[in-house]
Amino acid sequence: MTKYRTLLLATVGFNFSFLIWFSFAPFTGPMADEFGLSLAEIGILASAAIWLAPFGRILTGWLSDKFGAPVVFAIVLAYVGVFSIWSAFAESYTVFFITRLIVATAGITFVIGIQHVSEWFEKEELGTAEGIYAGIGNAGAAGGALVLPRVFSSGWSGPLFDVSWRAAFFYTGVVSILLAVVYYVFGEAAKSTEKRQATKDSATAKEWLFTATRYGTVVLALAYVMTFGLELSMNGWLATYYREGFNTQNLVLASTFAATFSIAAGLLRPIGGYVSDVVARTETNILPFFTGRYREQWTFVALCFVVVAMFGMTLAGLSGEVMLAVGIGFLVGMGCAFAEGAIFAQVPAMFPNSSGAVAGVVGGIGTVGGIVYPLVYSAPFLPNLHVGYSVVAASMIPILLLASWVFQPHVAKRATDDGFVTQREPVVSADD
User: Fold this and answer.
1) Is the pTM of this model over 0.70?
2) Are 390 and 310 in contact (CB under 8 A)?
């Protein structure tokens, strides 16, 4: 293996994981008709796609450090494929809901790939490499929105199914199982025996608790709630929003509108990681009040952009202009991409021998936004479908305030040692 082949393998695996994770989104209309679902119940289905991700990501991040990414990635892809196939044959909504709940754990593969890539790339390349991995991987949601409703259209009549969404779930399940075999056969855990052993040795319960409660870990996890959690919520909701909020009943058109967000949130993510690498390498200060904390400065700018863009979503929606809403949605996706790339440039750079564990905590907690935000968007007490975006934006402001405290130079330099449970004493040299 080489680092570039590892990056390719992880990226392909995660891209498909994201596609199968949100493969239900383009078909919410026909599924709602078949099972008699209300708009609020569709919102619950979108939220349910994230329910198991927090714990699953935390666990698989640690397992990847302990047993190596190829083994863990292959196991997840295999069982996801099995349950996707099962969901295609579900006749009751209970069976369908449970099987899709398990299929949705495909999203936990994110932290496995983050750990795998970090085991092969040097520190100065991590932001760009992780950005490419996660960005192209996240674009799998856009691929699903663009490809699945076209391949498995309303007129689908195949050898096994006459219902489009059932065929989509069956065949994506088959592909998932095949990818599991490929990842297990061709994946290699780390670039050297020494690197693999150092990561494995750090995978203890005590070390996990320590790293999980550092200031750096906590603030990045909350920042990921308002970026990746937001991305998840939009991936599962926007097709419904464009259909119901603007009376766009064309399923393919609504999915295409939604895909513009997913494309921005996915394909632009490498830029976020690349800029983080550049400002760190060139020691460029872009915010004077975080002087010397280069990666933190870029992360903070991107987080602020997300909040502003979310308020813009409400204004665009209230204007009644669907294309304006699509355009602002693209900007929200761009902000998410930049911030996510910046966050996961920081994670492996800050915790080089515990990247899986920390990525699991950050990635796991980050998915909480994907659970909560769809419930806000579809809340029956809101006056319309547009106001929920501003409610979510307002909830992000306390996270910005915490980030502004942790990113201060005197706090940030100790952010991997100081935390909310225990502190690690500074090392004092003989010269001191």
Assistant:
1) yes
2) yes
